[in-house]
């Protein structure tokens, strides 16, 4: 446990940030998995429709600083490649 007052405050702040980041990551993973499941079952039309919502979730996570810019770009590129009909 932290002893000094500033360390206690830092612990509270980091707990708040962690909970926000965890929520954002969970929503991010759900959006990505939705597209992956639809492409695995070859439902291309639905996958392309859910792709825009997955992009929005990825961009929000990047804007909040939960994931980095290049990570977001990589995830979006992989999802778009995955959602194309084969």
Explain how this protein is built.
By secondary structure, the protein is an all-alpha fold. It has one domain: Ribosomal protein S20 (Methane Monooxygenase Hydroxylase, Chain G, domain 1), CATH 1.20.58. The termini are far apart.
CATH C-level: Mainly Alpha
Low-confidence regions: none
How much strand? under 5%
Name the CATH superfamily assignment. Ribosomal protein S20
Number of helices: 3
Q: Tally the beta strands.
A: 0
* Rg over C-alpha atoms, rounded to the nearest angstrom: 17 Å
The major beta sheet can be summarized as: none
Shape label:
elongated
The chain-level mean pLDDT equals 94
- Structural class, judged by helices and strands? mainly alpha
The rounded distance between the terminal residues' Cα atoms is: 55 Å
Number of domains: 1
Proportion in helices = over 70%
CATH fold description:
Methane Monooxygenase Hydroxylase, Chain G, domain 1
CATH architecture: Up-down Bundle
Along the chain, the helix and strand elements come as HHH
């Amino acid at each position: 446990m932290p002893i000094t007052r500033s360390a206690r405050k830092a612990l509270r702040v980091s707990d708040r940030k962690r909970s926000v980041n965890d929520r954002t990551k969970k929503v991010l993973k759900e959006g990505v998995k939705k597209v992956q499941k639809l492409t695995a079952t070859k439902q291309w039309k639905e996958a392309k429709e859910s792709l825009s919502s997955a992009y929005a979730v990825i961009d929000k996570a990047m804007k909040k600083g939960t994931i980095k810019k290049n990570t977001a770009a990589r995830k979006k590129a992989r999802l778009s490649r995955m959602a194309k009909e084969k």
